[in-house]
Amino acid sequence: MQVTVYMLRCADGSYYTGLTKKPAEARVWEHNQGIGDGYTKSRRPVELVFTETFERMLDAIDRERQIKGWTRRKKEALIRYDYAALPDLASRKKQ
Q1: Cα–Cα dist 53/60, whole Å
Q2: Is CB count within 10 Å lower at the N or C end of the chain?
Q3: 17-73: per-residue pLDDT in tens?
Q4: How far apart are CA 91 and CA 59, in angstroms?
Q5: Cα distance between residue 54 and residue 4, in whole Å
């Protein structure tokens, strides 16, 4: 079973991170249709900006939680696939 962690950029500029067993594009369509009463319903339209696929649900859940705890700058580095910048953007890193 493949599980995709995805990140959306909402119309208000905020980011939403979720996971799905469906194709990510199908999930984005649902968000844009306002299906469900979640975070994105009042922030449409949304745009898919990042995906990462996992074979195990637990790995996807862990990654989703990790990303949700990140700062905006760190999420934007991930969106750019700038993995080298991620350690320097750790919120707990002393500056």
Answers
A1: 8
A2: C
A3: 999 999 999 999 999 999 988 999 999 999 999 999 999 999 999 999 999 999 999
A4: 22
A5: 6
Q: The whole model's pTM is what?
A: 0.91
Domains parsed from the chain with CATH numbers: 3-89 (3.40.1440.10)
Strand pairing of 47-54 and 15-20? unpaired
Helix (H) or strand (E) holding 34: none
95/93 Cα distance (integer angstroms):
6
Helix (H) or strand (E) holding 81, with range, is none
Q: What is the largest CA-CA distance in the chain?
A: 43
Helix, strand, coil abundance in the chain, percent, nearest 5: 40, 20, 35
Provide the pLDDT confidence category of residue 3 given band limits of 50, 70 and 90: very high
